[in-house]
Automatic annotation (TrEMBL), chain A:
Pfam families tied to this protein: RF-1 (PF00472)
Similarity comment text for this entry: Belongs to the prokaryotic/mitochondrial release factor family. Mitochondrion-specific ribosomal protein mL62 subfamily.
Prokaryotic-type class I peptide chain release factors domain: residues covered: 77-93
Species the sequence originates in: Scylla paramamosain
Superkingdom of origin organism: Eukaryota
The name this protein goes by in its record: Large ribosomal subunit protein mL62
Automatic annotation (TrEMBL), chain B:
Gly residues: compositionally biased ranges: 39-52
One Pfam family recorded for the sequence: Ribosomal_L27A
One cellular component (GO) term of this entry: mitochondrial large ribosomal subunit
Official protein name in the record: Large ribosomal subunit protein uL15m
Organism, as annotated: Scylla paramamosain (Mud crab)
Domain of life of the source: Eukaryota
Keyword Ribosomal protein: yes
PANTHER family (UniProt xref): 50S RIBOSOMAL PROTEIN L15, LARGE RIBOSOMAL SUBUNIT PROTEIN UL15M
Annotated GO MF terms: structural constituent of ribosome
Ranges where the Large ribosomal subunit protein uL15/eL18 domain occurs: 95-172
Length: 177, 293
């Protein structure tokens, strides 16, 4: 049972000290023991709703961040066995976005994706990823996100230039013309 | 009116002198004399019985069963029993069932949902004495879960955390030691006992890492790190993390218990009197220090 807020104030009012505000609204009088969070983490601001810095993508360095409002996700029924469940539940996930107009990717990455993964791009220019691996829509979407990130990272990968020793070894191996 | 026996007892209390060490004695047969038997009734065998190892003071070792394999040697050591006394089990609750409980108004969502609220639905049998730790959430029905809750359970996996957070709720995993769990499962029965609310103990060694990890949303983890993990999980599972700050029930969603607290709004050390509807609080500084430690 939870007492309403005025009752809490009356009953806890004088006995305990106010706690550091655990969130940005008006602070509550609450009980603090020797192992409360503000004692375990004295330097932290203990804010569960702290807004996070969105990492930036620059050049070939993909940050890993995919803005979900810029990609379109649609659900449909999966294939394969499964009886009534597979016939009725929309577990298949289709994740797509227009590659050329995606601002969250750098131009270099977009170029690389267009060349390396052109089989995943439709004639309209949409990069499409599908997943119906699991029985759950939520997990299939996670798999689709993972696939998308994998596509981008493999496209972004620039192999390092060959070492001097490797060039020398290749030169010796090949017959001189 | 009280029974005759009670009336007699109360009359005795009224007229007899105050109980003190000077007017107490043990019940007959409670204290056995350490001396050997003497005289006509304590003589002959002097309390040692007849013949055998007992009389000859050559006692059999503890557990010896006169030759057959004793009980304590009959069962071999098995690796699967190692540490079994420390292993906890949890009552499973799948997300589909949780959604059904909310839809059928069996569970309220306007207050933080913890083990007390879930136990009040009377749909679970959790016995702390049988090494049960509480409730764990299972993955089944994560796609059908739509409620916004402040949830506190004893074990939760990543998929479950996702399904709660994507709907704008918060989830925490918290440890309850057996005594605190017994109190939390049935608060009314606990208050009727008239004992002070105990401090909730911290998790044992094998569980402290789990409850301190922000990835598991542990109650001992740093909330700032939990905020980061919420963001990372939203990116992993492909949803926009709902902003709790702009939610109407922000306060309810962010309400948390102190690690030593069992009930929301009640502190360790308080005695809840249901009859007279009062709460008795300790005033002695030593007690206050103990209950806040």
């Amino acid at each position: 049972m939870l007492l309403s807020r005025p009752n809490i104030l009356r009953s806890l009012g004088r006995t305990v000290a106010p706690c550091r505000s655990l969130h940005n609204t008006a602070w509550l009088w609450c009980f603090r023991s020797a192992v409360s969070l503000d004692k375990i983490y004295p330097e932290s601001d203990l804010d569960l709703t702290k807004p996070q810095q969105i990492p930036k993508t620059k050049g070939h360095n993909f940050s890993g961040y995919v803005p979900m409002d810029k990609v379109q996700v649609t659900y449909s029924r999966s294939s394969g066995p499964g009886g009534q469940n597979v016939n009725k539940i929309n577990t298949k996930v289709d994740l797509r976005f227009h590659l050329a107009s995606a601002e969250w990717l750098s131009p270099e990455l977009k170029e690389k994706l267009a060349t390396k993964h052109k089989t995943s791009i439709t004639s309209d220019g949409f990069l499409v990823i599908r997943s119906d691996k699991t029985r759950s829509q939520q997990l299939n979407l996670a798999e689709a996100m993972d696939k998308l990130r994998h596509l981008i990272y493999t496209a972004a990968f620039v192999p390092p230039p060959p070492a001097v020793e490797d060039i020398e070894r290749a030169r010796r191996r090949l017959p001189s013309l | 009116m009280a029974s005759q026996g009670t009336e007699k007892a109360l009359a005795l209390l009224r007229r007899l002198p105050r109980v003190s060490l000077g007017n107490l004695k043990p019940n007959p047969g409670a204290v056995k004399s350490a001396r050997r038997g003497r005289g006509i009734y304590g003589g002959k065998t002097h309390g040692a019985g007849s013949k055998g190892s007992g009389q000859r003071q050559n006692f059999m070792r503890l557990g010896f069963e006169t030759g057959n394999t004793p009980f304590y040697l009959r069962f071999p050591y098995q690796n699967y029993y190692k540490g079994h006394h420390m292993r906890l089990s949890y009552a499973p609750l799948c997300m589909g069932k949780l959604q059904r409980m909310i839809d059928t108004s069996r569970l309220r969502t306007d207050v933080p949902v913890d083990i007390t609220q879930l136990s009040a639905t009377q749909l679970f049998s959790i016995n702390p004495m049988e090494k049960m730790g509480g409730i764990m959430l299972k993955d089944e029905g994560i796609d059908h879960f739509q409620a916004t809750l402040n949830l506190e359970v004893q074990w939760a996996t990543e998929a479950v955390i996702t399904s709660v957070e994507r709907n704008g709720g918060t989830i925490t995993v918290a440890y309850y030691d057996p005594i605190s769990l017994q109190a939390a499962l049935n608060p009314m029965a606990f208050f009727k006992r008239g004992v002070a609310i105990p401090r909730r103990m911290l998790p044992p060694q094998n569980l402290i890492d789990y409850y301190s990890d922000p990835k598991n949303r542990g109650y001992l983890a740093d909330p700032t790190e939990v905020a980061r993990e919420r963001f990372v999980l939203a990116q992993k599972y492909g949803y926009e993390l709902p902003d709790i700050r702009s939610s109407p029930n922000q306060e309810m969603l962010l309400e948390r218990k102190d690690p030593r607290q069992i009930f929301y709004g009640l502190q360790p050390g308080w005695v809840v009197n249901l009859e007279d509807k009062v709460i008795l609080k300790p005033t002695d500084p030593e007690l206050l220090e103990h209950y806040a430690s």
